[in-house]
Structure formats: structure tokens, C-alpha cells
Amino acid sequence: MRRRAGAHPRVDGGGHARTNPKTTATPKTKLGRLHRRLDTTKRKQSENENCSNRTLFGDYGALIEGTILGLDLPLRTLMMAHFDREGGLTEVDHVVINGVPPVAEEEWRPATGTYTVNPDCTGSAVINTGNPPIPLHFVVVNRGKEFRGVVDGNAITVTASRVD
Predict the structure, then answer these.
(1) Which residue of 20, 30, 92, 103 has the smallest Cβ count within 10 Å?
(2) What is the rounded CA–CA span in Å between residue 33 and residue 148?
(3) Structural domain contains residue 17
(4) Number of H helices, E strands in the chain
């Protein structure tokens, strides 16, 4: 029986404290328990860290918001992207900068790009819109149903969900 903190140990007939070797934790057994807990935690993490390029597949609708640094202009964008499970993507986006929508011929601007998803569900992408390439970093969440990202070099965030 385990002793409560502050409780007196059981005493045998000779006045000596009795201990149970099964419940008495020595530094060595405490360390062993800690190692087992860490191993279990690592195993659970590795079960969850099974992302790859194949985790993102199909169509994702995204809201992209933020500020274009240097120009201090607000940006709002809608994007529909298709991930091919092999590191390639195609997309169309509708970009509104400083409240001004795109001209009619660029209402939905097409683009292509590449992406990489790491085993820990982090990743990066480069989108080629015809302007300078747009680099971003993201995390895959909800078993690939969503991802969250930031555009490198700007104060712009991306929130995307798979279209069912």
C-alpha cells in the first residue's frame, strides 16, 4: 500500500519502519518510469507525425489576409488551390489590395507552384503568379483537412480547408 505524503510509515514489532519494495520508488525505478513515459509519448507523437506530400490532396479553399509590408497596404485574397499529392499545386486567386479589386481580366488569377510536407506536418510552398514567387510556410492540421500558413517577408496569413 502506497503511503500518503505526510503519513507515518508502518512500524513492525521491533520499532523499524517497514517498506514494500514494490511500492518504494528508488531513484533508479523513478528514472525507469520516466523513460517508459517518454517512450510512450514519443510513440504517440510518431503516430501523429506521419505527414508527407500525400497528406495534402484535392482542392482547398483559402482566406489570405494581412498587410503588404513596406507599402503598408491591407491585402485580402480568396484562393482555390489543388494539391496533387506529389508536391505540385495549381491555384486561382482573387486579390483585393487596399480595398481595390483586380481588373476584370485578372478577376481570378491562375498560378502554379510546388510544396513540401515534412513528417512532422510542417511544410513550405512557392507559388508562381507571374510576379516574384511567393514563398510561404505552413502547418498541416486536422489530418490534412486544413492548413495554416504565413507568407514569408510579409505580415500575411493563410487559413485553408479541404473542399469536400
Answers:
(1) 103
(2) 37
(3) no
(4) 1, 8
Please state the domain count of the chain.
1
In a domain, residue 90? The reply is yes
DSSP 58-75: EEEEEEEEEEETTTTEEE
Note whether residue 21 is domain-resident.
no
> 116 with 126: CB under 8 angstroms?
no
User: What number of other Cβ atoms are within 10 A of residue 100's Cβ?
Assistant: 9
Residue 143 has φ and ψ, to the nearest 5°, of 55, 40
Q: Measured between alpha carbons, how far is 162 from 8 in angstroms, rounded to an integer?
A: 60
CA distance 153 to 151: 6
Counting beta carbons within 10 angstroms of the beta carbon of residue 54, is it exposed (0 to 12), middle (13 to 18) or buried (19 or more)? Answer: middle
CATH number of domain containing 82: 2.40.128.120
- Domain coverage including residue 103: 53-162
pLDDT tens per residue, range 33-70: 656 665 554 444 445 569 999 999 999 999 999 999 99
